[in-house]
């Protein structure tokens, strides 16, 4: 399964607690992958199409939870040129379709006539939590992220220039620097820097994929650096890289769950230095401390950090059970 699919699967397990956030997430999803047809007599037809089964099930539940409406889920084979299936959610009742579109700010009225808005309805994203939820719906509907082993690229495909501009502004309201490029008849909002993509995954709430991305990125950087180092013992270097990656994974887990600031002072200082110097050996790391300590001392501290992370993993596994 691709990194992008795994990210969507994780986001589909994320449940918005506040009612306003549920509506914002639904609005983002419909805005990106909904097909809306207005016909004579005020008839309205809504279909939502996705290649991700977890996303389809997630929004079927979300629509039922928020609106009390049962969307019909249809599974269809993809075209001959594509593998897999498509998952289509259909709002069969015209009354239900109109209710959903009006409450999400997609169907508006101008001079007594219904029309579909091009951009994002501002009332739906008034709070920061609703902005996060809306972006989660947007990514689940039209987002992709490349495998970090191959490169750093995240994009969201929009069907109008107005929508792409609104999505870019919404992403950048969190301090990011997304850009827009035209591709055939689509407008693509994208991020290409690893740090920016990591921050965006955090905004969406994909913390598991964030950790995987960060670990892969760190390992790539370390491998790239080793290629520039001559006359080194490759076996010892691999051992250092693997140990550092394991330590960083433990530190990132603590940061995501409790924050490294919760650690005792000595462990906090050690964790901070390791995050800032992922390629450093134990001796180099020990010498960075003030006052410096020995190799065994720094190793003892890192072991303590790994023990704390292991306890967190055990607690998480117990909660899953």
UniProtKB/TrEMBL annotation:
Q: Which InterPro entries match?
A: Homing_endonucl, Sporu_reg_WhiA_N_dom, Sporulation_regulator_WhiA, Sporulation_regulator_WhiA_C, WhiA_LAGLIDADG_dom
Residue limits of the Sporulation transcription regulator WhiA N-terminal domain?
Answer: 19-107
Matching entries from SUPFAM superfamilies are given as: Homing endonucleases
GO MF, one annotated term:
DNA binding
The record's keywords, sorted A to Z, are: Cell cycle, Cell division, DNA-binding
Return any one Pfam family short name: WhiA_N
Q: Which residues form a coiled coil?
A: none
What domain of life is recorded for the organism? Bacteria
**Residue ranges annotated for the Sporulation regulator WhiA C-terminal domain, each copy included:** 227-309
Report the Gene3D superfamilies cross-referenced here: Homing endonucleases
Tell me, what is an example of a GO biological process annotation in this record?
A: cell division
Domain WhiA LAGLIDADG-like spans what residues?
132-223
Q: Which family does the record claim for this protein?
A: Belongs to the WhiA family.
* Functional note: Involved in cell division and chromosome segregation.
Q: What is this protein called?
A: Probable cell division protein WhiA
In which organism is this protein found? Answer: Sinanaerobacter chloroacetimidivorans
Lineage summary = Bacteria, Bacillati, Bacillota, Clostridia, Peptostreptococcales
